[in-house]
Design a protein that fits this description.
With 386 residues, the protein is an alpha/beta fold. 43% of the residues lie in helices and 15% in strands. It is globular, with a radius of gyration of 21 Å. The structure holds pyridoxal-5'-phosphate (PLP). The site of pyridoxal-5'-phosphate (PLP) has 14 residues, from helix 5.
């Protein structure tokens, strides 16, 4: 049965394969993720979420190594048993301050956070209003919650308002990505927040691609100058701009105490390695001390967008370092990605059913040089010409 399914996927060009990096074989000892080595070939990597180049940063690596020497590698148990360390606690305190809220709780991944938190804040009888383009982990969290899930059109607050009107009087939660991972556009948080106030709903935001990127690194709330309050629950990840691993939720103390008691992905899972918490701490400190990193990310993003626009290519509504480039249908997009690869540019084609409109998905980082970006633009120009 599985063989038939796999064959079907292969015939439809939908079979997924893993491209593991083989760093040392390119003879390059750099740990920067702005380069990727696959099967002995080096590419400029435009497919990493390491927005600030922190994954390979000296201080991040050294801090993680020191934590391994102090605590060992594995944490040995869940947080509620004996898996936590002073580093886990310190990271939670720092994240709460960074996000301007009272308290925080660590999770092992963004996926675990979303699939654990949504069931904990919206059970049977509740209604979750979810943006049509929300991340898969949110969709799965909604399913696990047993709440009624109502999908609103992407970023359409009029549609959402009409839908909320119908469910008045129930326990309501609005959930959204802050930055949408395939289109790179930003959710209208101010309007969403106003609707939540009007209908007395919770606002749950997934700031995976906003943390370290928007609002001078603090994330989407800071970007919109929204103040954290008990109605707002902020989730974020350490696995993207923080160049580390794991995830977190930030909210008022009572909400965090509840989540600690209710989230199955927190209670029944081994704690993050202390080294991961240490790496996240080092990254947070770098972001707060050195604003030039986030600035470089945005100036690189502007350079890229200017170049792509000059080529006459559509980038949908991208407003962030995630830049979709529309080059044609499925076949053209696959060919373009292949030709870019021939020019040592790694930028994957994303196709249906992952997205409706096929595109080359480019993510730019602070670790890219201006010449990296110019190389990409020249390659794109040549590929489009052919
Ligand atoms: C990446 C991502 C996640 C999952 O985070 P992991 O730490 O990789 O599990 C969740 N939500 C969004 C919007 C993401 O982009």
């Amino acid at each position: 049965m599985f063989r038939d399914e796999l064959e079907r996927l292969r015939l439809e060009h939908l079979l997924r394969v893993i491209n593991d990096r083989t760093m040392p074989s390119c003879g390059n000892n750099s740990t920067a993720l702005s380069r990727i080595c696959i099967a002995g070939q080096e590419y400029i990597n435009f497919a990493s979420n390491d927005y600030l180049g922190l994954a390979g940063h000296d201080a991040v690596r050294e801090t993680a190594k020191r934590a391994i020497d102090t605590y060992g590698f594995g944490s040995g148990a869940s947080r509620l048993l004996s898996g936590g360390t002073a580093l886990h606690r310190e990271l939670e305190q720092r994240l709460a301050v960074f996000k301007g809220s009272e308290a925080a709780l660590l999770f092992n991944s963004g996926y675990a956070a979303n699939t654990s938190i949504l069931p904990a804040i919206a059970g049977e009888g509740a209604v979750i209003f979810s943006d049509a383009l929300n991340h898969a982990s949110i969709i799965d969290g909604c399913r696990l919650s047993r709440a009624k899930t109502v999908i609103y059109r992407h970023k359409d607050t009029d549609h959402l308002s009409a839908l909320m009107q119908r469910e008045k009087g129930r326990r309501n939660v609005v959930v959204t990505d802050t930055v949408f991972s395939m289109d790179g556009d930003i959710a209208p948080l101010k309007e969403l927040y106003d609707l939540c106030c009007e209908y007395d709903a919770l606002l749950y935001i997934d700031d995976a691609h906003g943390t370290g990127v928007l609002g001078a690194g603090r994330g989407a709330l800071a970007h919109f100058s929204l103040m954290p309050e008990s109605r707002i629950i902020q989730m974020g990840t350490c696995s993207k701009a923080l160049g580390s691993f794991g995830a977190f939720v930030v909210a008022d103390r009572t909400t965090i105490d509840w989540l600690m008691n209710a989230c199955r992905g927190f209670i029944f899972s081994t704690a993050l390695p202390a080294a991961a918490a240490a790496a996240s701490l080092a990254s947070l400190e770098i972001i707060q001390k050195d604003p030039s990193l986030v600035k470089r990310l945005w100036s690189n993003r502007e350079r890229l967008l200017k170049g792509i626009t000059a080529l006459g290519l559509d980038t949908l509504n991208s407003a962030t370092p995630i830049v979709p480039v529309i080059v044609g249908g499925v076949e053209e997009t696959l060919t373009a990605a292949e030709r870019l690869k021939g020019k040592h540019i790694y930028a994957p084609a994303i196709r249906p059913p992952t997205v409706e409109t096929p595109r080359i998905r480019i993510t730019v980082s602070a670790a890219h040089t201006e010449s990296d970006i110019d190389t990409l633009l020249e390659a794109l120009a040549a590929v489009m010409k052919s």
